């Protein structure tokens, strides 16, 4: 099962879909879901190869992940959707937004891209080709995995196949547009950490070239996983964006 709905809101006029980072899981967003449920229905995506889906082989290609998530979200598209993705999840959100707008069967309100440079920017990265120790060093440097898991070497190595698959997917992804013309019509909001070693401010602002539907940019104190210490401010930003997207849709 791809979709987790931790805090159902039956009467919400829209849904926010949360897409985790590489190595992440739906439960990472549990506190975000709880906070956002005051105003909206929240869905968190669970990729295969981790937690209760540990027995399933992880996917190593962004296209395959998008195909599967797209199909999984179809039953939940009876209300307008807002996509929020962090790091790898932001790229998945972008490709899902393209798919939703192309098929025209889903009312997509907007995309919130967090902690990821625009897909039209490129860095040659090869963490997925490193040995286990190199992969562990990378995730520790970014502080993107639960501290308890990082402290448990045996448990950490059990989830390495899923982490490596995610890194393979995002590091081999190539965007097939050049940014010379917008590819999305929905608004894009970007959240980034001011000291993120994987995303500089220019790379984050380059998301503006991908839409003609409006662009918002916010920078927060912190590194790649600024959304954890800045959770209250991030939740407020998401709430503001969802309201703004709804107003744009009405207008």
Report on the structure:
Helix content is 38%, strand content 15%. It has one domain: 3-Layer(aba) Sandwich (Rossmann fold). The chain is globular and about 50 Å long. The relative contact order is 0.16. Helix 3 links the parallel strand 4 and strand 5. The model has no long low-confidence stretch (mean pLDDT 92). The protein has helices at 30-36, 62-73, 88-103, 132-142, 147-151, 153-171, 201-205, 231-250; strands spanning 3-4, 15-19, 41-45, 81-86, 108-114, 188-193, 215-220. Helix 2 packs across helix 3. It is an alpha/beta fold and 251 residues long.
List its traits.
251 residues, alpha/beta, Rossmann fold, seven-stranded mixed β-sheet, 7 strands, 38% helix, AB_hydrolase_fold, Thioesterase, TEII
Summarize, please:
By secondary structure, the chain is α/β, with parallel strands linked by helices.
Q: List low-pLDDT spans.
A: none
Helix content: 25-40%
Summarize the main sheet: 7 strands, mixed
- Give the CA-based shape: globular
Can you identify the CATH class? Alpha Beta
Write the element-wise H/E pattern from the N-terminal end onward: EEHEHEHEHHHEHEH
> Overall mean pLDDT score?
92
Q: Cα distance, first to last residue?
A: 36 Å
Number of domains: 1
- According to CATH, what is the topology? Rossmann fold
Q: Work out the radius of gyration.
A: 17 Å
Structural class: alpha/beta
CATH H-tier superfamily: Alpha/Beta hydrolase fold, catalytic domain
Count the DSSP helices: 8
């Amino acid at each position: 099962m791809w979709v987790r709905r931790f805090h159902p809101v039956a009467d919400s006029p829209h849904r926010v879909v949360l897409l985790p980072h590489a190595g992440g899981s739906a439960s990472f967003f549990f506190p975000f879901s709880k906070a956002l449920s005051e105003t909206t229905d929240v869905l968190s995506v669970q990729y295969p190869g981790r937690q209760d889906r540990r027995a399933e082989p992880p996917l190593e290609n962004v296209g395959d992940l998008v195909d599967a998530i797209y199909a999984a979200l179809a039953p939940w598209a009876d209300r307008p959707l807002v996509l929020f993705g962090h790091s790898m999840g932001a790229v998945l959100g972008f490709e899902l937004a393209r798919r939703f707008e192309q098929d025209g069967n889903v009312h997509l309100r907007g995309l919130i891209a967090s902690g990821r440079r625009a897909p039209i920017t490129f860095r040659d990265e090869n963490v997925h080709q490193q040995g286990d120790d190199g992969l562990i060093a990378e995730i520790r440097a970014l502080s993107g995995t639960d501290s308890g898991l990082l402290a448990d070497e045996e448990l950490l190595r059990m989830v390495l196949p899923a982490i490596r698959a995610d890194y393979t997917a995002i590091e081999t992804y190539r965007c097939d547009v050049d940014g010379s013309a917008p590819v999305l019509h929905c608004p894009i909001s970007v959240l980034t950490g001011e000291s993120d070693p994987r995303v500089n401010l220019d790379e984050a602002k380059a998301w503006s070239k991908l839409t003609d539907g409006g662009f918002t940019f916010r920078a927060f104190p912190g590194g790649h996983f600024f959304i954890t210490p800045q959770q209250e401010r991030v939740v407020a930003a998401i709430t503001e964006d969802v309201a703004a997207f709804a107003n744009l849709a009405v207008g």
